[in-house]
Amino acid sequence: MKPQTSLIMAVSLDGKISTRDGAGPRFASEADGIRLRELRSHADAILVGAGTIIADDPTFTENGKYKELRIQRGLAPNPIKAVVSGRGSVPETAQMFHPNGAPALVFTTERISSSRLVPLQKVAEIYRVGETTVDFQRVIEILGEVYQVKQLLIEGGGQVNFDLFRAGLIDEVYLTLCPKVIGGKDVLTSVEGAGFNFLDIVDVELLDHRLVGDEIFLHYRVCKD
Ligand SMILES: NC(=O)c1ccc[n+]([C@@H]2O[C@H](COP(=O)([O-])OP(=O)(O)OC[C@H]3O[C@@H](n4cnc5c(N)ncnc54)[C@H](OP(=O)(O)O)[C@@H]3O)[C@@H](O)[C@H]2O)c1
């Protein structure tokens, strides 16, 4: 069965997800960090792009309250960690590959060189799902069928988000609108890629909103009709 997919992002007032000097989502508040960990505590698996691993090097290892919550919910102590990396640019030394009892997966393509494949094979399970670009439909199928993932949390970045929206594979969006202005035409936004034409724009419906200090936590459903 197809997993339920939720995308989570923190954006500045002008839609940026990082800063000019590549500081990533550190501009978001502690409350946003708590929201992220709460959502992670419901997820069977987390999916990110190689660019996010290279920039932020997240661990995805839970501890304390959130680990307990996962166990109470009948989930594994840590979520499955999956990265999309068509060329295999994700470093094998990344924290996501540190053993924590949860499988680490790399979704790549036939383009990956053996000099990248060999070290990654030592730290992760590798799936080649495409000639030149990763087929996200296959990624979602593999997560659902092979790993029984029911709830998938997608944590960016901008390129992966665009590919997933284009493939119609995002069900929900959790967006934190942060009271910051970052600017810069080359600074990443929450959805990158080639962009959509007018007729292909993705519509979303607001399900919930919450104000915490000057930040707004938004929850949308993606309209697929
Ligand atoms: N504010 C937030 O909430 C938030 C959250 C997450 C990330 N971020 C920021 O977002 C930035 C990273 O975003 P990004 O857009 O540069 O990178 P990204 O989407 O994280 O990863 C891009 C990489 O993923 C692989 N990839 C993506 N789509 C692919 C496809 N269809 N086929 C094959 N490979 C594919 C490629 O890896 P290869 O190069 O190996 O082919 C590509 O270089 C960082 O600055 C990070 O801090 C912010």
How do the helices and strands line up, and which of them pair or pack?
Elements: E1 4-11, H1 30-40, E2 45-49, H2 50-56, H3 64-72, E3 80-84, E4 104-108, H4 114-121, E5 125-128, H5 136-145, E6 151-154, H6 158-166, E7 172-177, E8 204-212, E9 215-222
Parallel strand pairs: 1-6, 1-7, 2-3, 2-6, 3-4, 4-5
Antiparallel strand pairs: 7-9, 8-9
Protein architecture, described:
A nine-stranded mixed beta sheet has the order 5-4-3-2-6-1-7-9-8. The relative contact order is 0.22. It has six helices and nine strands. The protein has one domain: Dihydrofolate Reductase, subunit A (3-Layer(aba) Sandwich), CATH 3.40.430. The protein is α/β, with parallel strands linked by helices and 225 residues long. The longest helix is centred in the N-terminal third of the chain and has 11 residues, at 30-40. The radius of gyration is 17 Å and the shape is globular. NADP nicotinamide-adenine-dinucleotide phosphate binds at residues 9-10, 17-18, 22, 24-25, 48-52, 55-56, 84-90, 109, 133-134, 155-160, 163, 188, 192.
Distance between the termini: 20 Å
The major β-sheet equals: 9 strands, mixed
**CATH topology term:** Dihydrofolate Reductase, subunit A
Corresponding CATH architecture? 3-Layer(aba) Sandwich
Keywords:
6 helices, binds NADP nicotinamide-adenine-dinucleotide phosphate, alpha/beta, 225 residues, 9-stranded mixed β-sheet
Summarize the structure.
This protein has 225 residues and is α/β, with parallel strands linked by helices. Helices cover 24% and strands 24% of the residues.
